[in-house]
Amino acid sequence: MAYxxxxxxxxxxxxxxxxxxxxxxxxxxxxxxxxxxxxxxxAAYQAIRQTPVDFALVxxxxxxxxxxxxxxxxxxxxxxxxxxxxxxxxxxxxxRERVMKARDVGVTEFLAKPISAQSLTQRLEEIIxxxxxxxxxxxxxxxxxxxxxxxxxxxAERRTQV
Amino acid sequence: MSKDxxxxxxxxxxxxxxxxxxxxxxxxxxEPGVLKKAEKVFDTLRPEFEATAKTAVExxxxxxxxxxxxxxxxxxxxxxxxxxxxxxxxGGSYGYPLVTKFGDQLCRxxxxxxxxxxxGLVIVKAAADAIAVVINAAVTGDxxxxxxxxxxxxxxxxxxxxxxx
Lengths: 162, 165
Description:
The structure holds 2 protein chains of 2 kinds. Chain A is of the alpha/beta class. Chain A has helices spanning 17-30, 41-50, 67-76, 96-105, 117-129; strands spanning 9-13, 34-38, 55-59, 87-91, 109-112, 134-136, 141-143. Chain A has one domain (9-160): 3-Layer(aba) Sandwich (Rossmann fold). Helices cover 35% and strands 19% of the residues of chain A. In chain A, strands 2-1-3-4-5 form a 5-stranded parallel sheet, with helices on both faces. Chain A starts with 8 loop residues before the first strand and ends in a 19-residue tail after the last strand. Chain B is mainly alpha-helical. Chain B has one domain (48-164): Four Helix Bundle (Hemerythrin (Met), subunit A) (Up-down Bundle), CATH 1.20.120. Chain B has helices spanning 20-25, 34-69, 74-91, 97-112, 118-136, 144-164, and strands spanning 2-7, 10-15. In chain B, strand 1 (2-7) and strand 2 form a beta hairpin. In chain B, helix 2 runs antiparallel to helix 3 (74-91), helix 4 (97-112) packs antiparallel against helix 5 (118-136) and helix 5 (118-136) runs antiparallel to helix 6 (144-164). The longest helix of chain B has 36 residues, at 34-69. The radius of gyration of chain B is 22 Å and the shape is extended. Chains A and B meet through helix 1, helix 5 and strand 6 of A and strand 2, helix 1, helix 2, helix 3 and helix 4 of B. Strand 6 of chain A pairs antiparallel with strand 2 (10-15) of chain B.
């Protein structure tokens, strides 16, 4: 039995009208029937407090509250409706330091623009079949950032920081 | 379910929340045919992209011209950046990888450059012009000879700016 998306509700946070139409078309093609739309991070946060969603597709750049700020609120605010919400960040910012910044606020997966049907479905498979554990430290809460499968983490031991 | 890592200098918690999404969606991967159906969405929306890209190209030309007049006006620079950023994010999805390439080169140059001098302005204009040619002449894919010429023009401007620093 393949995935069934008919009962899934998705948040689409995107301020660009064309990208929103594209993402809605792609979600429709895979079988998603219920999409909660928002055009800035504040509206998106309010929306998911009223209507729970199963995962979120979030663009980075928007005004006044960015997609990045939305992720930060979901992960850290005491009134967050779901701190474990799988969040896929759609971004044209593929520079390393920007990716690290988004990762450090708790993004679950990245979907680099320009997107394709395949890149989107691959990220969906990741959040459905290979969810990462969550890590809580004094400085971070979110999906585990040590994500390379089979690799050995060689970075600084941040989890020892108190 | 969670596991604490406290002691020995460690202070963290590993939490494995129930996989609510998989409970709803199930397992077994995508239904056959879903990927093809999703790919057709791009075909359907390509004319709309091409129309909005033409408008964006006009805006990029205007924003670039405004930047020429005030090279270190942060707002004017941001206008150029944001238009190029949107174009780089969409071009490749619709068969215009050169739009993504040139837009990316422009954004990365602006990211890495504090002050725009005359050579920097040449890069801004070269990138904006190259993107305009690609969109207005519907140069898809690698663009053949046209694509190569445009790429060389922009690469040369970038190399000259780099050698000057």
